[in-house]
């Protein structure tokens, strides 16, 4: 029996996202958001950038930016998305991940716009997508890729959101935390399978999650190890499990010298 006395962080966030979408739809109709998405400048090749980096024998780093998080509290005072993007790019990151959720992460669509405009890296919109409107909104704000969290979506919803993202030439990172979610993600067309080492119900992090799941991901997919990666040894550990792409946020963002920290992590 699940412990119903413990609040489920993801369920709380998803509940609020449904309300946000309803409010968003009142301000901008689905048809208008679709029009804005189609009018946006063309997307950058998020998946291609990761494939090229890995083919060159380097670690594909999706470098994340977030002001705060439910698990970490305030992460980076003086947060400047354009400056962070330039530093990440110069230090060898392959892609960006930008939190746009305001309530829990202090983010905003303007963060993604500013970060993307400041560099040539493709950008993932890191948010909690539950409705087609948000996929169109992601493209309209300039995102090159969206995150689909399998724990937050039914199979039908995941397929629908992926179809819309693909129709807009955006990449999809399908995120999983257990074997069942992984099987469901493998039913999608995307090659990018993110294994989140963070349990989004309890917010605890364990790199063993990637060590268990990544070796079970078929060779035609691209595993991305996410969360809790802090050291060159962690990067090596993820690579040993078969994940040559990683998504890292908090550790890097807490370092005063972000560029040096990013370079050091990629030296693994
Ligand atoms: O990070 C949280 O506290 C969190 C809470 C609820 C839902 C999602 C959450 N984080 C999203 C992520 O998984 C991370 O931002 C991402 O994978 C980077 O992790 P890290 O390198 O540990 O910052």
Automatic annotation (TrEMBL):
InterPro entries registered for this protein in UniProt: Aldolase_TIM (IPR013785), Indole-3-glycerol_P_synth (IPR045186), Indole-3-glycerol_P_synth_dom (IPR013798), Indole-3-GlycerolPSynthase_CS (IPR001468), RibuloseP-bd_barrel (IPR011060)
Reaction equations catalysed: 1-(2-carboxyphenylamino)-1-deoxy-D-ribulose 5-phosphate + H(+) = (1S,2R)-1-C-(indol-3-yl)glycerol 3-phosphate + CO2 + H2O
Coiled-coil regions, chain positions: none
Residue ranges occupied by any Indole-3-glycerol phosphate synthase domain in the UniProt entry: 11-264
One example GO MF annotation: indole-3-glycerol-phosphate synthase activity
Keywords on record: Amino-acid biosynthesis, Aromatic amino acid biosynthesis, Decarboxylase, Lyase, Tryptophan biosynthesis
E.C. number(s) listed in UniProt: 4.1.1.48
Listed pathway(s): Amino-acid biosynthesis; L-tryptophan biosynthesis; L-tryptophan from chorismate: step 4/5
Pfam family, any one: IGPS
Annotated PANTHER family: INDOLE-3-GLYCEROL-PHOSPHATE SYNTHASE, TRYPTOPHAN BIOSYNTHESIS PROTEIN
Protein family membership: Belongs to the TrpC family.
Protein name in UniProt: Indole-3-glycerol phosphate synthase
Native source organism of the sequence: Sabulicella glaciei
Gene field: trpC
